Amino acid sequence: MASKGIKDRVAIVGMGCTPFGEHWDKGADDLLVDAATDAYKSAKVDPDQVDAYWLGTMGSGVSGLMLSEALKLDYKPVTRLENMCATGSEAMRNAAYAVASGAYDLVMAIGVEKLKDSGYSGLTGSRPPSDGTDSSMTAPATFSLLAPAYAKKYGVDEATLKQVLARIAWKNHKNGAKNPKAQFRKEVPMDKICASPSVAGMLGIFDCSGVSDGSAAAILCRAEDAHKYTDHPIYLKALSFAAGPAEGYFSQDYDFTTFPEVVASSTDAYKQAGVTNPREQISMAEVHDCFTPTELVLMEDMGFSPRGQAWKDEQEGRFDLEGAQPVNPDGGLKSFGHPIGASGLRMMYEMWLQLRGEAGPRQIKNPKLGLTHNLGGAPGRCVSFVSIVGNSLG
Hints:
single chain
């Protein structure tokens, strides 16, 4: 990939995030107001100081009017965008580039989703007509294909792999229990996870992320202006987005043990940030654990584990909160929840807390670089976003 990046040119100076979960008493507009208000307060700015807005939502609203009406904005530019489950990250990426270009001084990226009002458990929206090569399987069924493919390729007994997947769920629920804003705030014993009802293939209920309502927001400015708003900004080191050719369902070369889009976006992000050894240089990560085998495969795609070895690293606790490289310290999609338009910004919210030393009982000791990863689509047919952030320049 040929992106040059905007390393250390943009800072996040304020963030807000609602609790994720079932907000039957609030609409999407209420959630937007809550997240935006917290972000304004965090950056110590008034709404009229923000020059422009990027709103991410997949199915909860149409056009920028959704935000301008909720926040009572007076004739500010509001861009509404969508990129499947990576929508929140896409809002932040576009907002950051607008600041880096010099077009605006202070901007907001905000995401929201109101999924519980749909009346069923799952993602809202209908599929557009296609050429017939898209899969008609549900998301759990599609992602379940990762597990047996991984087991076969790397010679891992399926019973052993089932324990590994259960441990990923156990880890993320354990982390989420320390997070007052998470949708699911209780630890879940391994035996209960392993005995949960089957959903698809090797996946049980606890292998699948939650369906949530929620909103999250970030305020960004140029790095040289950051200390006008906060004593502890965090700096963008890399932003990379990759959309694949969507050939996985009919390509004979695709084996369901990798996301090529993730490899491409993480490789590009590392180049932008100057990271040469992600296993050692990335202090912590928030990744798109929509299903437990997704997190497993991501560890190898992003270079946190050698190929065929992530299952061992998971077993040995490398990615635990107290491990060498914590993954999903806030509970991830699995425990924090997954309101589509807000998820990417929620990941950045955890980086904001951790890098400022404000994560409370889940605080990681002396983090330097954090990574967020957000995926939209399915194995072999997806988009992938990777950011790298730090708490100092250079």
